[in-house]
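Note to self: keep these together.
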Amino acid sequence: MSNDAKKVILAYSGGLDTSIIIPWLKENYGYEVIAMCGDVGQGDETAPLKEKAIKTGASKLYIEDLKEEFVKDYIWPTLKAGAVYEGKYLLGTSFARPLIAKRMVEIARQEGAVAICHGATGKGNDQVRFELAVKALAPDLEIIAPWRIWNIRSRDEAIEYAQARNIPIPVTKKTNYSMDRNIWHLSHEGMDLEDPWNEPQNQMFMICTAPEQAPDKPAYVEIDFEKGEPVAVDGKKLSPVGIVEYLNKVGAENGVGISDMVENRLVGMKSRGVYETPAGTILYAAHRNLEELCLDRITYHYKEVVALRYAELVYDGVWFSPLREALDAFVESTQQNVTGKVRMKLYKGSVTGAGTQSPYSLYSEDFATFGVDEVYNQKDAAGFINLFGLPLTVRAMLFGEQAKKNLSDETRTPVAVAEETK
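Structure:
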């Protein structure tokens, strides 16, 4: 390759798509391909990547450890917001993409690259997430999305392309789930899951124990929060990554974190995915339990509205946006007193609260008791109900007379009506 060849930064995972993209870029663009793998906690998947990338034709490979930044700057803000997409999806892939794209842009500047390439398909959400991040951070960079322009039309054809060039790939036509893994989750799509009637098979799970195979005795975990962020588990101060790893282990052992859903993709179609998110499932439940104690009613309810919008922004790939930053500012203000300890019970896939305490708790046993108390005069409730129900009373008075008249008209006989009109 000539020294003046233009450079492209490829988001590289070593999976099927990005494995074949390296030779494809060289064959069709003549670019020097610099691969970048963002390590967001995919485990031992990164170990063989350097040798594989170079053998496949990349000039170099960056393996960037992004785990701590991922948890602290992307997962924790989303957790504090309470953001869940369509009630089930804890956004595991969604908020990893902008972080990876951000690091790709930084490497592109360092290497003097003119383009960024990703392996997301033209039917998925990830193409949007990668490209919106690049547009927000480096709009001058060219974006190459092979799945939108090459003549490969299916994963089977991609496998054939790899085999023709002796490129080792981690899938076959028989084991062809589309998967994405990081420290927060593992997703599964494709194959038998494309029919929503098919139940996910236990052998598919790579993190979680199937709930029916989990221990018959429940496990308990205690999580300490400070200003909405987890800081310790079972009395041990841990780093953000350490907390997620600890809860992944205990959650997975007890079958916690499996979610099966048909979601509405941003690009307009529905897709079926199965997610394994043990730590996330525990942390979301624990955080919500603590907020129940620490947030006043109107803030708690409005924060639920914000959570829905925040989840949509993350899912849609609009991480680097003024609105997301503004919502973060709101969320941060709500979390100032979300400090305390939460105990969770894990049993055969379920997560239930088993105790919550906080120095900022707004719960008062004196007010809530059903016993004799000196702080709440139950007679006051009558005046409150009268005022709160005043609009209903006025409406009933206004329309009640009309309703009575209508009812009277309906019950009159034709003879009576005729007599009235004489």
